[in-house]
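I hope you will forgive my troubling you with a question about protein structure. The record follows directly beneath this note:
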Amino acid sequence: MATMEPASGSPKTGTGTIVIERDEVKINDKFLTPYNVICWDDPVHTMDEVVELFQRLFGFDNQKAVKKMLEVHLTGKSIVWTGLKERAEYYREAIENKGLTATMEPA
């Protein structure tokens, strides 16, 4: 419980005292947990299309976009982004809107 004294200078226990009660706020850890966005290999899109998507969507430079694309191509998947759940959902959906397969999971 916090006590605020009004500007008039009233004593804390007298009339005019404002008492603010604060409840403990429990934050849902699920929203603070970092999530990985995983891009999966597919036989349809060209390597150049995937590199271009990574550059436009994530702002990767050419070298990083090529590295991530090769990881997808050679291992079948790549973690392309890690961060808060809401943003991870955005990136997963953006990848899927381009016809690629993407998932997300807690990091």
